[in-house]
Fold:
Amino acid sequence: MDQYKTALASKAVWGGIIAILASIAAIWGIKISPDDQARLVDIIIAMAAGIGGIMAIWGRITATKMIGKP
Structure:
């Protein structure tokens, strides 16, 4: 592995976060199966990608300078 990504782009990190949250939820009697945890990871990754796209478009719309050579 010679390429890097941010921690929040890692499915392993999100899986760990969701596993911790599922453990906390179990304290209150809420059960989240491993299959549901895996689905939650996929949903969160998809939502993050969508939000990133929206932010990129919004950033370009609200930008005050043109793209191009100076």
Notes: The chain is about 65% helix and 0% strand. The mean pLDDT is 85. Residues 32-62 form one domain. The first helix runs from residue 11 to 27.
